[in-house]
Amino acid sequence: MSRYDVTEDPLCYPGTNVLRNKADLTNQDELDQFEQLMFLTRSEEPLPEGALDYAHYRAIHHHFFQDVYTWAGQPRQVRTAKGGNWFCYPEYIDAEMHRIFRELTDENHLADTTSPQNFAERAAHYIADINAVHPFREGNGRCQLTLLDILMQVAGLEMIEDNIDEDEFMNAMIASFAGDEGPLVDAIIKIAS
Ligand SMILES: Nc1ncnc2c1ncn2[C@@H]1O[C@H](COP(=O)(O)OP(=O)(O)OP(=O)(O)O)[C@@H](O)[C@H]1O
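Structure tokens predicted for protein adenylyltransferase (193 residues):
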């Protein structure tokens, strides 16, 4: 939910960085609270079924954010950055996401990884790639973590949610953007059992 650097964005209320939303909240703090409440509520429900492909990933985003944004599940159409790191330009998002999920499918969704270390190395690679693409205007971090949870289950591991250190994950994600996936591997190992 941290704010983005965005080029001109028709999804926001005019003159603000606040995303238009179904509750018509124009105050960012109120929107953050509403968004998180809806996300947590939808998290209590079963996730959409799917083939663990890009369409499935979009369906998961739609599931979590359908109460908040009309564009839930749809890729963003504006250029966005965080901390000066510009994510994939919108015109390349679909192709990049299809590529990533094709490669993940070719790796049998990590079902055949041989140890938590091996799993973490492969998962870090995919999560870092997906973060660099950043397909959605908002809600990327929460979808990434959900995908990681699903991949852990596929690999026969369990996510230890209490061990998630948000700052560590954020710093690891930033390092991965710069090409160093090591910290993300370490962060994933800590939450895999
Ligand atoms: N400077 C940065 N460079 C690369 N990735 C970043 C940077 N800052 C944050 N991120 C990553 O972006 C993701 C957050 O994206 P976004 O804000 O769309 O997701 P969210 O689900 O709304 O928020 P959050 O993950 O904070 O709950 C996280 O994975 C975070 O680690």
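The longest strand covers residues 80-82.
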